[in-house]
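Work Package 3 (structural annotation) set out to generate three-dimensional models for the target panel prioritized at the project kickoff. During this period the team completed the workflow that converts sequence records into C-alpha coordinates, so that structures can be stored uniformly alongside our sequence database. As a representative example, we reproduce one entry of 384 residues exactly as it appears in the project archive.
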Amino acid sequence: MGTALAMVLLWLPVLLTPISCLLQRDQDPNPPIKNLRMDPRTKSLTWDIHGNVSAIECCINSRSNTKAKKNRFCKFYVLPKCKASNYTVKVTTIDGETFSTWIQYPKQEGNPEAAPQNLDCQVHDKDFLTCSWAVGKEAPSDVQYYFYLENMNTNQKWECSDYTANELGQHIQCQFDDVSQFSEGQYRFLARGTSNESTVPCSELITFLPDIEKLIAPKITVSCNQSLAFMKWNMSSHFHKNFDYKLEIQQRSDPPFIQMAPLKNSFMLTNPGTFTVRIRALTILKSPGQWSTPQRFVCDYEENAFLQIWLTSSLIALATLVTVGTALLLCKRYSVLKMLFPPIPHVKDPTGDNFQDEKMMAWEDCKRTQQECPVAEVQLLRET
Protein backbone atom coordinates (compact mmCIF):
# COMPACT_ATOMS: atom_id res chain seq x y z
CA MET A 1 0.00 0.00 0.00
CA GLY A 2 2.79 2.37 0.95
CA THR A 3 4.76 1.47 -2.18
CA ALA A 4 1.77 2.15 -4.42
CA LEU A 5 1.19 5.54 -2.78
CA ALA A 6 4.85 6.42 -3.22
CA MET A 7 4.66 5.56 -6.92
CA VAL A 8 1.58 7.75 -7.36
CA LEU A 9 3.31 10.68 -5.68
CA LEU A 10 6.38 10.11 -7.82
CA TRP A 11 4.51 10.14 -11.13
CA LEU A 12 1.97 12.84 -10.27
CA PRO A 13 4.26 15.81 -11.10
CA VAL A 14 5.16 14.23 -14.42
CA LEU A 15 1.55 13.64 -15.37
CA LEU A 16 0.68 17.25 -14.50
CA THR A 17 3.53 18.66 -16.54
CA PRO A 18 2.48 19.85 -20.06
CA ILE A 19 3.49 17.53 -22.88
CA SER A 20 5.19 20.40 -24.77
CA CYS A 21 7.33 21.09 -21.71
CA LEU A 22 7.92 17.52 -20.57
CA LEU A 23 11.28 16.71 -19.04
CA GLN A 24 12.76 14.18 -21.48
CA ARG A 25 16.22 13.71 -20.02
CA ASP A 26 15.60 13.18 -16.32
CA GLN A 27 18.42 14.14 -13.97
CA ASP A 28 20.90 14.80 -16.75
CA PRO A 29 24.37 14.95 -15.14
CA ASN A 30 25.45 17.58 -17.68
CA PRO A 31 22.35 19.63 -18.60
CA PRO A 32 22.64 22.20 -21.40
CA ILE A 33 21.31 24.95 -19.10
CA LYS A 34 21.67 25.48 -15.36
CA ASN A 35 20.75 27.95 -12.65
CA LEU A 36 17.25 28.76 -13.91
CA ARG A 37 15.98 31.91 -12.15
CA MET A 38 13.43 34.74 -12.40
CA ASP A 39 14.44 38.39 -12.25
CA PRO A 40 11.33 40.31 -11.09
CA ARG A 41 12.96 43.68 -11.78
CA THR A 42 13.33 43.00 -15.51
CA LYS A 43 10.53 40.40 -15.64
CA SER A 44 12.94 37.99 -17.28
CA LEU A 45 13.50 34.25 -16.89
CA THR A 46 17.24 33.66 -17.26
CA TRP A 47 19.71 30.73 -17.12
CA ASP A 48 23.31 29.75 -17.72
CA ILE A 49 24.19 27.76 -20.88
CA HIS A 50 26.51 24.76 -20.41
CA GLY A 51 26.24 23.07 -23.78
CA ASN A 52 25.63 23.50 -27.48
CA VAL A 53 21.97 24.39 -28.08
CA SER A 54 20.07 25.26 -31.25
CA ALA A 55 16.79 26.58 -29.81
CA ILE A 56 15.21 27.43 -26.47
CA GLU A 57 11.53 28.10 -25.70
CA CYS A 58 9.69 29.11 -22.54
CA CYS A 59 6.13 28.34 -21.49
CA ILE A 60 3.87 29.28 -18.58
CA ASN A 61 1.48 26.68 -17.21
CA SER A 62 1.50 24.72 -20.48
CA ARG A 63 0.65 27.72 -22.67
CA SER A 64 2.15 30.89 -24.11
CA ASN A 65 5.22 29.38 -25.75
CA THR A 66 7.81 32.11 -26.20
CA LYS A 67 11.08 31.89 -28.11
CA ALA A 68 14.08 32.85 -26.01
CA LYS A 69 16.03 35.95 -26.95
CA LYS A 70 19.53 35.02 -28.09
CA ASN A 71 18.99 31.71 -26.25
CA ARG A 72 19.79 33.61 -23.06
CA PHE A 73 16.47 34.69 -21.51
CA CYS A 74 12.70 34.93 -21.93
CA LYS A 75 11.02 38.25 -21.12
CA PHE A 76 7.44 38.51 -19.84
CA TYR A 77 5.17 41.52 -19.82
CA VAL A 78 3.39 40.63 -16.58
CA LEU A 79 4.61 38.69 -13.57
CA PRO A 80 2.03 37.66 -10.95
CA LYS A 81 2.75 38.50 -7.32
CA CYS A 82 0.24 36.29 -5.55
CA LYS A 83 -0.53 33.08 -7.44
CA ALA A 84 2.37 30.79 -8.27
CA SER A 85 2.87 29.72 -11.87
CA ASN A 86 5.15 27.09 -13.45
CA TYR A 87 7.78 28.57 -15.80
CA THR A 88 9.30 25.87 -17.98
CA VAL A 89 12.26 26.10 -20.35
CA LYS A 90 12.53 23.60 -23.21
CA VAL A 91 15.93 23.20 -24.84
CA THR A 92 16.80 21.59 -28.18
CA THR A 93 20.46 20.69 -28.56
CA ILE A 94 22.50 20.68 -31.76
CA ASP A 95 22.17 16.87 -31.80
CA GLY A 96 18.36 17.22 -31.86
CA GLU A 97 17.86 16.03 -28.31
CA THR A 98 15.50 17.88 -25.96
CA PHE A 99 15.78 18.85 -22.35
CA SER A 100 13.44 20.83 -20.08
CA THR A 101 13.45 22.20 -16.60
CA TRP A 102 11.15 24.47 -14.65
CA ILE A 103 10.74 26.72 -11.61
CA GLN A 104 7.76 28.04 -9.73
CA TYR A 105 7.27 31.79 -9.31
CA PRO A 106 6.40 33.49 -7.05
CA LYS A 107 7.14 31.30 -4.09
CA GLN A 108 3.90 30.34 -2.37
CA GLU A 109 3.85 31.29 1.31
CA GLY A 110 1.10 31.01 3.88
CA ASN A 111 -2.31 29.40 3.74
CA PRO A 112 -4.12 30.25 0.47
CA GLU A 113 -7.45 30.05 2.31
CA ALA A 114 -6.39 33.02 4.43
CA ALA A 115 -5.92 35.28 1.40
CA PRO A 116 -8.61 37.76 0.32
CA GLN A 117 -11.28 35.87 -1.57
CA ASN A 118 -13.33 36.77 -4.66
CA LEU A 119 -11.49 39.99 -5.48
CA ASP A 120 -13.59 42.02 -7.90
CA CYS A 121 -13.13 45.55 -9.26
CA GLN A 122 -15.46 47.79 -11.23
CA VAL A 123 -15.47 51.30 -12.69
CA HIS A 124 -18.96 52.70 -12.21
CA ASP A 125 -20.95 55.96 -12.36
CA LYS A 126 -18.25 57.29 -14.72
CA ASP A 127 -15.84 58.56 -12.01
CA PHE A 128 -15.61 55.82 -9.38
CA LEU A 129 -13.46 52.70 -9.04
CA THR A 130 -14.59 50.23 -6.37
CA CYS A 131 -12.87 46.95 -5.46
CA SER A 132 -14.29 44.45 -2.99
CA TRP A 133 -13.22 41.12 -1.51
CA ALA A 134 -14.20 38.66 1.20
CA VAL A 135 -12.24 37.65 4.28
CA GLY A 136 -10.44 34.35 3.78
CA LYS A 137 -12.22 31.33 5.24
CA GLU A 138 -9.14 30.35 7.24
CA ALA A 139 -7.77 33.83 7.88
CA PRO A 140 -6.33 34.54 11.35
CA SER A 141 -8.62 36.37 13.74
CA ASP A 142 -6.44 39.49 13.67
CA VAL A 143 -6.13 39.65 9.88
CA GLN A 144 -6.29 43.03 8.19
CA TYR A 145 -6.31 43.66 4.44
CA TYR A 146 -4.79 46.56 2.48
CA PHE A 147 -5.40 47.45 -1.13
CA TYR A 148 -3.06 48.83 -3.81
CA LEU A 149 -3.41 49.86 -7.44
CA GLU A 150 -0.40 49.59 -9.75
CA ASN A 151 0.09 50.77 -13.33
CA MET A 152 1.90 47.93 -15.12
CA ASN A 153 3.42 50.30 -17.69
CA THR A 154 4.85 52.95 -15.36
CA ASN A 155 5.02 50.95 -12.09
CA GLN A 156 3.28 53.87 -10.38
CA LYS A 157 1.34 52.76 -7.29
CA TRP A 158 -1.62 54.12 -5.33
CA GLU A 159 -2.61 52.96 -1.86
CA CYS A 160 -6.28 52.99 -0.92
CA SER A 161 -7.39 55.83 1.33
CA ASP A 162 -11.13 55.08 1.49
CA TYR A 163 -11.92 51.64 2.98
CA THR A 164 -15.17 49.99 3.95
CA ALA A 165 -14.90 47.54 6.87
CA ASN A 166 -17.07 44.73 8.18
CA GLU A 167 -18.44 44.46 11.71
CA LEU A 168 -15.04 43.21 12.93
CA GLY A 169 -13.22 46.20 11.48
CA GLN A 170 -11.60 44.19 8.67
CA HIS A 171 -11.28 45.97 5.34
CA ILE A 172 -13.46 44.41 2.65
CA GLN A 173 -13.77 47.23 0.10
CA CYS A 174 -11.82 50.15 -1.33
CA GLN A 175 -13.01 53.09 -3.45
CA PHE A 176 -11.21 55.66 -5.60
CA ASP A 177 -13.33 58.73 -6.36
CA ASP A 178 -11.62 60.01 -9.51
CA VAL A 179 -10.57 57.49 -12.16
CA SER A 180 -9.54 60.31 -14.50
CA GLN A 181 -6.24 60.44 -12.60
CA PHE A 182 -5.34 56.99 -13.97
CA SER A 183 -3.79 56.92 -17.43
CA GLU A 184 -4.40 54.24 -20.03
CA GLY A 185 -2.69 50.88 -19.67
CA GLN A 186 -2.89 47.63 -17.78
CA TYR A 187 -3.34 47.69 -13.99
CA ARG A 188 -2.72 45.33 -11.11
CA PHE A 189 -5.35 45.37 -8.35
CA LEU A 190 -3.65 43.96 -5.28
CA ALA A 191 -5.10 43.08 -1.86
CA ARG A 192 -2.56 42.09 0.81
CA GLY A 193 -3.22 40.57 4.22
CA THR A 194 -1.29 41.05 7.45
CA SER A 195 -1.43 39.16 10.74
CA ASN A 196 0.69 38.66 13.84
CA GLU A 197 -0.24 34.97 13.89
CA SER A 198 0.81 33.75 10.44
CA THR A 199 1.71 34.78 6.89
CA VAL A 200 -1.29 35.78 4.77
CA PRO A 201 -1.01 35.43 0.97
CA CYS A 202 -2.21 38.21 -1.30
CA SER A 203 -4.81 38.25 -4.07
CA GLU A 204 -4.58 40.14 -7.34
CA LEU A 205 -6.47 41.01 -10.48
CA ILE A 206 -4.65 42.19 -13.63
CA THR A 207 -6.75 43.92 -16.28
CA PHE A 208 -7.46 47.16 -18.17
CA LEU A 209 -9.74 49.82 -16.70
CA PRO A 210 -11.98 50.02 -19.81
CA ASP A 211 -12.61 46.27 -19.48
CA ILE A 212 -14.13 46.62 -16.00
CA GLU A 213 -16.18 49.76 -16.63
CA LYS A 214 -19.92 49.48 -16.08
CA LEU A 215 -21.32 52.01 -18.53
CA ILE A 216 -23.69 54.55 -17.05
CA ALA A 217 -27.17 54.97 -18.50
CA PRO A 218 -27.80 58.12 -20.56
CA LYS A 219 -30.63 60.44 -19.50
CA ILE A 220 -33.15 61.19 -22.24
CA THR A 221 -34.74 64.59 -22.94
CA VAL A 222 -37.79 64.82 -25.23
CA SER A 223 -39.57 67.54 -27.21
CA CYS A 224 -42.79 66.34 -28.84
CA ASN A 225 -46.33 66.90 -30.13
CA GLN A 226 -49.06 64.59 -31.41
CA SER A 227 -47.11 63.75 -34.57
CA LEU A 228 -43.49 63.47 -33.51
CA ALA A 229 -41.26 62.93 -30.47
CA PHE A 230 -37.62 63.92 -30.74
CA MET A 231 -35.46 62.11 -28.15
CA LYS A 232 -31.92 63.22 -27.38
CA TRP A 233 -29.25 62.14 -24.89
CA ASN A 234 -25.56 62.44 -24.06
CA MET A 235 -23.12 59.73 -23.00
CA SER A 236 -19.93 60.19 -21.02
CA SER A 237 -16.99 57.93 -20.12
CA HIS A 238 -13.31 58.43 -19.31
CA PHE A 239 -12.29 55.34 -21.28
CA HIS A 240 -14.76 54.87 -24.15
CA LYS A 241 -15.61 57.27 -26.97
CA ASN A 242 -17.77 55.39 -29.47
CA PHE A 243 -21.15 54.01 -28.41
CA ASP A 244 -24.25 52.41 -29.85
CA TYR A 245 -27.60 52.70 -28.10
CA LYS A 246 -30.54 50.39 -27.55
CA LEU A 247 -33.98 51.79 -26.73
CA GLU A 248 -36.90 49.96 -25.18
CA ILE A 249 -40.13 51.83 -26.01
CA GLN A 250 -43.69 51.16 -24.92
CA GLN A 251 -46.48 53.25 -26.47
CA ARG A 252 -49.76 53.43 -24.58
CA SER A 253 -50.71 49.86 -23.58
CA ASP A 254 -48.91 48.20 -26.50
CA PRO A 255 -46.16 45.65 -25.78
CA PRO A 256 -42.69 47.23 -25.52
CA PHE A 257 -40.31 46.93 -28.48
CA ILE A 258 -36.54 47.23 -28.84
CA GLN A 259 -35.10 49.80 -31.22
CA MET A 260 -31.46 50.48 -32.09
CA ALA A 261 -30.77 54.18 -32.53
CA PRO A 262 -29.68 54.80 -36.16
CA LEU A 263 -28.22 58.14 -35.09
CA LYS A 264 -25.55 58.35 -32.45
CA ASN A 265 -27.38 60.35 -29.79
CA SER A 266 -30.95 60.95 -30.94
CA PHE A 267 -34.09 59.16 -32.14
CA MET A 268 -37.42 60.29 -33.64
CA LEU A 269 -40.65 58.49 -32.78
CA THR A 270 -43.73 59.12 -34.94
CA ASN A 271 -47.25 59.36 -33.47
CA PRO A 272 -45.84 59.00 -29.96
CA GLY A 273 -48.92 59.67 -27.81
CA THR A 274 -48.07 58.66 -24.26
CA PHE A 275 -44.99 56.46 -24.14
CA THR A 276 -42.36 55.08 -21.77
CA VAL A 277 -38.73 54.65 -22.78
CA ARG A 278 -35.48 53.45 -21.31
CA ILE A 279 -32.01 53.28 -22.85
CA ARG A 280 -28.67 51.53 -22.49
CA ALA A 281 -25.27 52.15 -24.07
CA LEU A 282 -23.19 49.55 -25.88
CA THR A 283 -19.61 49.46 -27.07
CA ILE A 284 -17.52 46.97 -29.02
CA LEU A 285 -16.25 43.83 -27.22
CA LYS A 286 -17.91 44.79 -23.94
CA SER A 287 -21.05 43.85 -22.07
CA PRO A 288 -23.91 46.35 -22.51
CA GLY A 289 -24.28 49.13 -19.96
CA GLN A 290 -27.05 49.30 -17.40
CA TRP A 291 -30.60 50.23 -18.41
CA SER A 292 -31.76 53.71 -17.48
CA THR A 293 -34.77 54.24 -15.22
CA PRO A 294 -37.95 54.18 -17.37
CA GLN A 295 -39.13 57.69 -18.30
CA ARG A 296 -42.72 58.49 -19.20
CA PHE A 297 -43.67 61.25 -21.66
CA VAL A 298 -47.07 62.62 -22.72
CA CYS A 299 -47.20 64.03 -26.25
CA ASP A 300 -50.99 64.44 -26.74
CA TYR A 301 -51.17 68.25 -27.08
CA GLU A 302 -51.95 69.95 -30.41
CA GLU A 303 -49.31 70.67 -32.97
CA ASN A 304 -50.26 74.38 -32.98
CA ALA A 305 -49.08 74.59 -29.38
CA PHE A 306 -45.61 75.13 -30.79
CA LEU A 307 -47.02 77.81 -33.10
CA GLN A 308 -48.76 79.56 -30.19
CA ILE A 309 -45.56 79.58 -28.17
CA TRP A 310 -43.67 80.90 -31.18
CA LEU A 311 -46.25 83.65 -31.81
CA THR A 312 -46.24 84.73 -28.18
CA SER A 313 -42.46 84.93 -28.13
CA SER A 314 -42.47 86.83 -31.43
CA LEU A 315 -45.04 89.39 -30.18
CA ILE A 316 -43.04 90.00 -27.02
CA ALA A 317 -39.90 90.52 -29.06
CA LEU A 318 -41.73 92.83 -31.49
CA ALA A 319 -43.19 94.94 -28.66
CA THR A 320 -39.75 95.30 -27.17
CA LEU A 321 -38.30 96.43 -30.50
CA VAL A 322 -41.12 98.97 -31.01
CA THR A 323 -40.61 100.44 -27.55
CA VAL A 324 -36.88 100.78 -28.02
CA GLY A 325 -37.35 102.24 -31.52
CA THR A 326 -39.86 104.82 -30.29
CA ALA A 327 -37.55 105.92 -27.51
CA LEU A 328 -34.65 106.30 -29.91
CA LEU A 329 -36.83 108.23 -32.38
CA LEU A 330 -38.01 110.67 -29.70
CA CYS A 331 -34.49 111.29 -28.52
CA LYS A 332 -33.30 111.87 -32.07
CA ARG A 333 -36.23 114.18 -32.81
CA TYR A 334 -35.57 116.28 -29.71
CA SER A 335 -31.95 116.69 -30.78
CA VAL A 336 -33.01 117.84 -34.28
CA LEU A 337 -35.47 120.44 -32.85
CA LYS A 338 -32.81 121.74 -30.56
CA MET A 339 -30.47 122.20 -33.52
CA LEU A 340 -33.17 123.98 -35.61
CA PHE A 341 -34.41 126.23 -32.78
CA PRO A 342 -31.53 127.07 -30.48
CA PRO A 343 -32.40 129.12 -27.37
CA ILE A 344 -32.30 132.95 -27.87
CA PRO A 345 -30.07 134.75 -25.38
CA HIS A 346 -31.70 137.62 -23.49
CA VAL A 347 -30.01 140.94 -22.72
CA LYS A 348 -28.89 141.52 -19.23
CA ASP A 349 -29.28 144.80 -17.47
CA PRO A 350 -25.72 145.90 -16.90
CA THR A 351 -26.93 148.17 -14.10
CA GLY A 352 -28.32 145.36 -12.12
CA ASP A 353 -26.47 144.09 -9.12
CA ASN A 354 -27.48 140.46 -9.17
CA PHE A 355 -26.33 139.24 -12.57
CA GLN A 356 -23.23 137.38 -11.42
CA ASP A 357 -25.08 134.15 -10.72
CA GLU A 358 -27.19 134.21 -13.89
CA LYS A 359 -26.17 132.30 -16.95
CA MET A 360 -24.71 134.42 -19.69
CA MET A 361 -24.34 133.47 -23.36
CA ALA A 362 -21.25 134.54 -25.20
CA TRP A 363 -21.89 136.70 -28.26
CA GLU A 364 -19.21 136.37 -30.88
CA ASP A 365 -19.22 138.68 -33.90
CA CYS A 366 -17.03 136.28 -35.85
CA LYS A 367 -19.76 133.65 -35.93
CA ARG A 368 -22.61 135.80 -37.22
CA THR A 369 -24.58 134.54 -40.17
CA GLN A 370 -26.61 136.33 -42.77
CA GLN A 371 -29.80 135.25 -41.05
CA GLU A 372 -28.99 137.11 -37.81
CA CYS A 373 -30.57 140.59 -37.35
CA PRO A 374 -28.27 143.61 -36.95
CA VAL A 375 -27.89 144.77 -33.41
CA ALA A 376 -27.79 148.52 -32.68
CA GLU A 377 -25.29 149.74 -30.20
CA VAL A 378 -26.97 151.37 -27.19
CA GLN A 379 -25.25 153.99 -25.09
CA LEU A 380 -26.32 154.84 -21.59
CA LEU A 381 -26.04 158.56 -20.77
CA ARG A 382 -25.86 159.69 -17.22
CA GLU A 383 -28.12 162.61 -16.39
CA THR A 384 -26.41 165.71 -15.23
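Confidence is low (pLDDT under 50) at residues 1-26, 303-307, 355-359.
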